[in-house]
Amino acid sequence: MSTRATIALGVALLALVTLPYWLTQIYYVNVASQILFYAIFALGVNLLLGYAGLVSLGHAGLFGIASYATAYLLAAGFGHTLSIVAALIIGLFSTAIFAALSLRTAGIGFIMITLALGEILWGLAYRWISITNGDNGISVHGRPQPFGLSLASANSFYYATLFVFLLCVIVVTIFVRSPFGAALKGTRDQPRRMTALGYHVWMIRFWACMFSGLLTCIAGILFVYYTQFISPQTVALTSSAEVVLMVISGGPATLLGPIVGAGLVVVVKSVVSGFIERWNFLLGAIFVAIVILMPEGLVPGTVRLWKLGWRKTMARRRPAVIAKTGEPAP
Amino acid sequence: MNFWILLTVNSITFGGLLFLLSAGFSLIFGLMRIPNLTHGSLFMLGAYVGATFIIGFIGLKFDFWIAAILAALVVAAFGALCERLLLRRLPGDQLAQVLVTLGISFMVADFCLMVWGGDPISVATPQHLGGFIRYGIAVFPLYRLAIIGIAALVAICLWLLLERTRLGAMIRAGVDDPEMARVVGIRVSQLFTIVFALGSALAAFAGIIGGPILSVYPGLDQDMLPLALVVVILGGTGSLLGSFVGSLIVGFLYNFGQALLPELAYFILFLPMLLVLVVRPQGLFGRQLQ
Q1: Do B263 and A236 touch (CB under 8 A)?
Q2: Quick one: DSSP state of residue B125?
Q3: Residues 293-312 in A contacting B (C-alpha not used; CB under 8 Å)
Q4: Residue A317 — very low, low, confident or very high, per pLDDT cuts 50/70/90?
Q5: Which of A183, A304, B233, B275 is the most buried (most CB within 10 A)?
Q6: Chain A contact for B265, CB < 8 A?
Q7: How far is CA B183 from the centre of its chain?
C-alpha cells in the first residue's frame, strides 16, 4: 500500500469514527448508519456482480428473509441473541437454496432466475399474511444490548453499525485477495479454462453466493434493528435494483466502489425525497444515464478521468516529450 | 361442479393473457437476446392508455376494441423508440440491457402513478360481451371465452407469421444465427425494431383486454413481469410453443392456487419452475439459456 493510500485510509477511518462529533444532528448520524448497512449489502452483492460476474436481481429477497426472520422471532417473544443467530441460519439456508437453483445457469439465465425468485419472495412477504402480516408489516420493539451497552440512541447504533461494517470490509478484503478470490475472478473471466485447470467452477460460485448471502443477511438484520419495522416494500424488486445500482454506480469489482455507491444512493434518496414525492423515476433515470454514460462506475470512472487529467497536465508541462512519442515511426 | 368449470375457464383465460404477454417477451429474448424487463410495464402502460381511450380522452371516446388497438399502437411506438434510442447502443451487453430496461420500467411505473394516480381504474366489459352462455348446468362468462378465442387467434396468426411468411423466415434465421442472417442480406437491425414493436404491441393489447378482469392499478407491472419470466423459464426462450404451454401451466397453477391456497398462490408457481430448472435448465421447448 502506498503512503498516499495509507493516509487516505487513515483520514477516512478517523472521519468515520468521529462522525457523530462533526455531524451533530441526529438525522445525519442516522443517514450515516443507513449508508453503512447498505454498504455491507452492496459489498455482498458486489462479490457476485463484480468478482463472479453473476448479476442477482433477487438479493432483496435474501435481505428480507433475514429481516423478517428477526422481526418474526422477536415478535414471537424470543431473545435478541437467539433471534439474530436463527435469522442468520435461516438466511444462509435460503441462500443455499437460492444459489442451488439460480446457479443452474450463468449470465442472463442467472439474472432471470434470481429476479423470479426475488419476486416470489416478495409475493410471499405480501400475501402470506399469517407469517408476515402482509402489507402492515411487523414492528420490532427495542434493540439488542451487547455487553450491556444500549443501542437505543442514534450515536450508539451508528457505532455498532460501524463496528460491523469495518469487520465486514476487513473480511471482504481478505476474501478478495485470497487464492479463492483469484479463483472466483477466474470463473468470471474464463470459466472453461478454469474447469480445464481442475477448478470446480460451480462450487466456487456456490461459496461466493453463500458469502454474499451472509453479508446480505447481516445487512438485513442491521436494517430491521435500525428501522424497527419491516414490510414487503423492503423485499420488492426496487430494493434489489437499488443495491445493484449502488454497485454499478460505484464501480463493480472494486472494494471502495460499492461503499461509495451506497453513500451516493442513500444520500440522493434521502435528499431527493425531501423535495419530490417519488424517487423511482429518478432512480430509473440515473440507472439509464450511468449505463449509457459511465458504464465502468463512478470510482473507476473518476480514477480514469483523474489519470487523463494528470496526463494532460503533464503533457502541457512537457510538450516536447509527447510530440516525440506522438510522431509516426519513419 | 360449476365452481370447477368456472375455475378452469378462468385459468385458460389467464393463460391466454399470459401467452399474449410472454410470446413477445420470448421472441424479443430469442431474437435479440435482450432480457426485456420493461415487458410488465408495457402491459401496464397498454392497460392505462387503453382505459384512457375508453373512458374518454380530450373529448374523444372510443369503442373498447378500437381503444385496445390504439393502445397497442401507442405502446408499440414507445417500444420501438426505446429500442432505437437506447437498447441499440448496447448490443451484446446483457448486463447493461437488463439495467436499462429495468430503469425504463421504474420510470414507466412512476410516470403511470403520476398521470393516473394510485387508485385502481376498472375497465368496463364491452357491452355485447357482458353476458353469459349456459350449457346444461354450467355457466360461462362470454367475455372470458372471447379472450380465449382472441389468444388462440393470435397464437395461430403468430405461428403462421413465423412459419409461413418471408418475415417469419427472416426472424427465425435471426434467432438461429444473427451473423449468418446478416451475411445473406437480411436486415437484422430492422427486424429487431419490428420484433420489439410487435412484442410491445402484444403486451399492451394483453394489458387492455385483461383490464375488465384484472383492472388497472399501480404495481400491475410487478405482478405480471415475474409471471412472464416464469412462463419463459418454463417454456424455454424463443419458442412460441414453449410460451403457449408455459402460459397455460402458469394460468392453471395461479388460478387454482389462488382459489385453494390463497396465501401460497404465488409460491405454488415456483414449484414447476423449480422442477424444470432441475430437470431441463433450458426450459421445456427451449435451447440452452446463455
Answers
A1: no
A2: P
A3: 295
A4: low
A5: B233
A6: yes
A7: 32
- Asked if A123 is an interface residue toward chain B (Cβ–Cβ < 8 A), one would say yes
Cα separation, B20 vs B39, in Å, equals: 11
Cα A166–A168–A172 angle (5° rounding)? 120
Please write the tens of the pLDDT for every residue from B116-163.
888 888 888 887 777 777 777 777 788 888 889 999 999 999 889 888
Question: Distance between CA A38 and CA A40 in Å, rounded?
Answer: 5
- Cα gap A147→A156, rounded to integer Å: 13
Which chain B residue lies closest to A279 (C-alpha atoms)? B110
Residue B274, beta-bridge partner list: none
Q: What is the pLDDT of residues A221-269, one digit of tens each?
A: 999 999 888 888 888 888 888 898 888 888 888 888 899 889 988 888 8
Q: State ipTM.
A: 0.74
Tell me, what's the pLDDT at A321?
A: 42
Tell me the C-alpha distance between B103 and B116, whole Å. Answer: 20
- Provide the residue type at B251 as one letter: G
Minimal Cα–Cα distance from B110 to chain A, Å? 5
- pLDDT score at B214: 84
The pLDDT confidence band at residue A167, using thresholds 50, 70 and 90, is: very high
Q: How many CB atoms lie within 10 A of CB A141?
A: 7
Between CA B54 and CA B66 the distance in angstroms is: 9
Angstroms from B36 CA to nearest CA on chain A: 10
Q: CB of A121 within 8 A of CB of A64?
A: yes
Q: Which helix (H) or strand (E) holds B63?
A: none
B40 within 8 A of B225, measured Cβ to Cβ: yes
Residue A235 DSSP label: G
Determine the residue of chain B that is closest to A58 in CA distance: B226
pLDDT (tens digit, 9 = 90+) per residue, A35-88?
999 999 999 999 999 898 888 888 999 999 999 999 999 888 888 889 999 999
Residue B139: phi and psi, rounded to 5, are -120, 130
Binary contact (B289, A285; C-beta < 8 A)? no
| Radius of gyration, alpha carbons of chain B | 19
Burial of A169 (0-12, 13-18, 19+ CB in 10 A): middle
User: What is the rounded distance in angstroms from the CA atom of residue A26 to the CA atom of residue A153?
Assistant: 9
